[in-house]
Specification:
There is one protein chain. With about 200 residues, this protein is mainly α. It has one domain. The protein is about 85% helix and about 0% strand. It has helices at about 5-15, 20-45, 50-55, 60-80, 90-100, 100-115, 120-130, 135-150, 155-170, 175-200.
Length: about 200
């Protein structure tokens, strides 16, 4: 939750205007992470420990995180520009990546779920690789893990609060705009930090 909360909360606080949109964005993000976990469990059950070791040793997750960092940075820039950027290309990106939370949150949730080699995920994939006899069982175990780490978490509550609180606290449109652009700036810095840390791991 702690690794995903900043990404989710900043996105919702900077782009959403109500609890319904916040719930939708949070659920799409969380279920996309769950799908990524199921896919990893399927692979672990199919190929065994070899797939987990190979992906990790080749730095596969590093390149995915670089892509995630670029994606996060672009969203941050678009949030800073506001709802109607002047450049036509930015308007297209704004429509597909910021205003359409289903696309952006689905991609981001999947990337985070697939690339986050945290200790619990490595442990469950190792367990799956050594204990299951078929890929469907591996997918089921990973699904159970994903329910706890991606679905049954305080993230949903945090997403709702992030969608409601800014409009209650920052009542004037100008102050609200400043707050949202500040969220975009932090989002941009978060993406740049992800890229830098990933590149440092390669170098």
């Amino acid at each position: 939750m702690l690794s995903c909360a900043p990404i989710l909360v900043l996105y919702i606080a900077g782009t959403k205007e109500g609890w319904q949109d916040a719930v939708k964005a949070t659920l799409v993000f969380s279920f996309s992470r769950l799908f990524a976990y199921v896919l990893l469990g399927l692979l672990a059950g199919l190929v065994g420990m070899f797939i987990t070791d190979s992906l990790h040793n080749m730095g596969f997750s590093t390149y995915i995180w670089i892509g995630a960092g670029v994606f996060i940075t672009i969203i941050g820039i678009l949030i800073i520009f506001g709802k109607d950027p002047r450049l036509h290309f930015c308007r297209i990106l704004m429509k597909d990546m910021v205003k359409n939370s289903i696309i952006s949150m689905a991609l981001l949730g999947f990337i985070v779920g697939f690339a986050s080699y945290c200790a619990p995920l490595i442990a469950i994939l190792t367990f799956i690789s050594f204990s299951v006899k078929d890929p469907l069982t591996g997918a089921f175990y990973a699904f159970c893990f994903g329910l706890g780490s991606a679905i049954i978490t305080p993230l949903l509550v945090m997403g709702i609060v992030a969608g409601i609180l800014p409009r209650l606290v920052f009542r004037t449109p100008k102050i609200l705009m400043i707050f949202r652009r500040s969220c975009g700036a932090i989002f941009l810095l978060l993406g740049a930090r992800v890229i830098f840390n990933s590149l440092r791991g390669i170098w």
